[in-house]
Structure formats: structure tokens, C-alpha cells
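CO-FOLDING WORKSHEET

Operator: S.A.
Ligand of interest: 2-acetamido-2-deoxy-beta-D-glucopyranose
Run index: 246
Mode: holo prediction, single chain
Checklist:
[x] sequence pasted
[x] SMILES validated
[ ] output reviewed
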Amino acid sequence: MSASVCVTVTLLMSVVGSQALDLLRVTTTSGDPPSTPTVHCWCSNYPNATFCTWPKPSRSPPTHYIATYSERHGQNSTERCHLIPPGSSSSISAPSSASDDLWRCYLPNLKLLTDYIINITAVHSEGSSSHLMIFMMEDIVKPDPPVQVRVSPHNVRNLMVKWSAPPTWTSLDIFPLKYHIRYQWNNRGTPMSSNLGPLEDTKIELKGLTPGRTYLFQVCARELLGLGECSNWSSPVEITIPRTKP
Ligand SMILES: *[C@@H]1O[C@H](CO)[C@@H](O)[C@H](O)[C@H]1NC(C)=O
Ligand SMILES: *[C@@H]1O[C@H](CO)[C@@H](O)[C@H](O)[C@H]1NC(C)=O
Ligand SMILES: *[C@@H]1O[C@H](CO)[C@@H](O)[C@H](O)[C@H]1NC(C)=O
Ligand SMILES: *[C@@H]1O[C@H](CO)[C@@H](O)[C@H](O)[C@H]1NC(C)=O
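OUTPUT RECEIVED:
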């Protein structure tokens, strides 16, 4: 019996922006290598809710996953991450964008300003592969997008843009958000775009817009002190400035 066992260790010491650090991927196999889960982690409700997700493999799914995390420099034992299979509804308020073909795991009660290491291991009958990642919650903060963006005419030729904080960000009084506004229009076929902010307010009045022109408005939310990154843009809201009679 000569089952050839192959161990692949890939060092991925790249930091993309302030994103989590992909520490290393380890694949132990005999035969076809199982796919290593590609894991993405973010904190949508600082300091409470950190989620990691990875896609359900399209073919040869693992028999199961083992998801653990621990403090990088801590003496304490490894904790198991709360695994949520694709398509299951959970009592935990999962990110609204959570799609049905993603595995998710939930990491409650992480300590502030602490490096964590997460290990997502896909176990196959013929071997296993692990994705290890280091992150600090502060670096991976990304709120959900603001909601209820509404745009209405205000005074003559002006617009009022209003929105509400993402409801999933529950510590708004302790960790306020700031907002960026993007508006886009077409100038004789050329796409144009302009940004406003950051603002702490949840409304802004815009002046000097062109009558007859159509604008698309979007808002993103970021932690006030600048932790992590801005949320995804909210879905665009369209408005056409009325033509004023001469
Ligand atoms: C280990 O865990 C205990 C209880 O949760 C905690 O009080 C202690 O500070 C932790 N030790 C380290 C080194 O993080
Ligand atoms: C943000 O946008 C990306 C790319 O469109 C998408 O994959 C992701 O699920 C979105 N995240 C949230 C929280 O809406
Ligand atoms: C990752 O988790 C797997 C499964 O629990 C374990 O076998 C492996 O040793 C872990 N890797 C590291 C580097 O801790
Ligand atoms: C956030 O976590 C803290 C500490 O566990 C808890 O006291 C608080 O109620 C949580 N807040 C929300 C909105 O989940």
C-alpha cells in the first residue's frame, strides 16, 4: 500500500489594506486536493458581532467543517465558532446580505484590540485543508449599509437626502457612525459622480442641481473614528430635478 500523501503549505503573508491577514493555508491530502475554504471575516456590529463566511464548494463538499478560534498570544484554550450551514435561518441576526450558498460562523464576545487566529478546516474523507487567518476586530469593522435612504425636493432646486443608521449596528450611542454620500448622473452620456462627507448627521441638503437631470444617491456608513471600512453602498435612489418654468 503506497498511499501518496501530499502536504501543501502556502504562506500568504500579504496584508490587503487593513484587512485580516491570511496567515497560511495547509492542505493535507492523498489523491485530489480538496479545496481550501476561502474565508472572509468582518464585524458588522462593533464590538458585538463578528462573522466569517466561506462559500459552499460547488463539487465534492467536505464531510464537515471544524471552525475554531483563539487569542493569538493567549494561553487560553481554543474556542469553537458557532457554525451556521448554508440556507439555515438562525436566531442570531446574521448579515442581511447573507446568501444561501455561504457557510457562516459567528464569533461572540471578542476582546477589544486583541489579535485572534481563526482556523477553518474542511474535513474530507481523503484529507483535510485548513484556512488560518489572523485578525483584530478593529481592523475588520464594516457596518451594513444605511437604510431608508430617501430623497425629496426641498425649497427651489434643492434636494434633501435623509437616511437611517443600519439597524444591525446596535451600539450607536457608544460607537457612532459617520456617513459618506455618493451621487451620480450622466452628462451627455458621460457618467459623472461626486462624493460628500463624512457627516455625522443623517441628512444633507444639496444645492445647485441641474433641472431636468436625473441623479442616483447612495450612502455608506463607517465607524466614527475610522475603524475598518465603510459599509457597502446602499441601493441607489433615483430622482429627477423638476424643470423650473422660465
Ligand atoms: C483566560 O480566560 C479567563 C476567563 O475567560 C480570563 O479571565 C483570562 O483573562 C484569560 N487569559 C488570557 C491570557 O487571556
Ligand atoms: C457587499 O458587497 C459585496 C460585493 O457586491 C457582497 O459580496 C457582500 O455580500 C456585500 N456585503 C454586505 C454586508 O452587504
Ligand atoms: C486547525 O484545526 C484543525 C482541526 O481542528 C487542526 O487539526 C489543525 O491542527 C489546526 N491548525 C492549527 C495551525 O492550529
Ligand atoms: C453587546 O455585547 C455586550 C457584551 O456581551 C452586551 O452587554 C450587549 O447587550 C450586546 N449588545 C447587543 C445589542 O447585542
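REVIEW:
The mean pLDDT is 84.
The longest strand covers residues 177-187.
[x] output reviewed
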